[in-house]
Amino acid sequence: MAVLGFEIYKAQIQNAIESKIASGVISDPAGFILIDGFINMPFQKEIGGAFVIGGPTVPAVAVVGKSTGLIHSFALKILLPHVQI
Known about the structure:
Oligomer: single chain
Number of strands: 4
Distance between the termini: 6 Å
Low-confidence stretches: none
Largest sheet: 4 strands, antiparallel
Shape: globular
Order of helices and strands: HEEEEH
Radius of gyration: 15 Å
Structural class: alpha+beta
Helix content: 10-25%
Number of helices: 2
Number of domains: 1
């Protein structure tokens, strides 16, 4: 698996998110702040009584609404389909 540096892809990520914002997918009157790094969202095929550490994740990035404080996440592969992850 390749290791991706956030700073290398930051401009491409920002452009892709700005395109989503322009299309009305999300909105905030004061705009957004890009969280400066990747987020791994874990998922499991079963839920039980134990907390599972490790396993598969969805690599993502997120923005925070300046006036609402809402966090909106985007799957990295949807924003940058050409990136090998």
